[in-house]
Amino acid sequence: MAAHAHESNTKRIWIVFGILSVITLVEVYLGIIKPEALHLHGPGTSWLNWIFIILTLAKAYGIAWVFMHLEGEKKWFRRSIVWTAVFLIIYLVTLLLIEGDYLYDTLAPLVKW
Amino acid sequence: MEANIAVPTNKKDTWNGGSVKPFGASYGKMMMWFFIVSDALTFSGFLAAYGLTRFKFIDSWPIADEVFTHVPFVHGDYPMIYVAIMTFILIFSSVTMVLAVDAGHQMKKNKVAWYMFATIIGGIIFVGSQAWEWGTFIKGTYGAVKTTDGKVLQFVKDGKQIALADFVTGERTDVREQHTRKNGLWFQSEGTISTYSVDQVVNAYKANPAIQVRTELIDLDKKQKTILSREEGAAQLAKTKMVIEGANLKVNEYGNTIFADFFFFITGFHGFHVLSGIIINIIIFFNVILGTYERRGHYEMVEKVGLYWHFVDLVWVFVFTFFYLV
Question: Which terminal CB of chain B, N or C, has fewer other CB atoms within 10 Å?
Answer without folding.
Answer: N
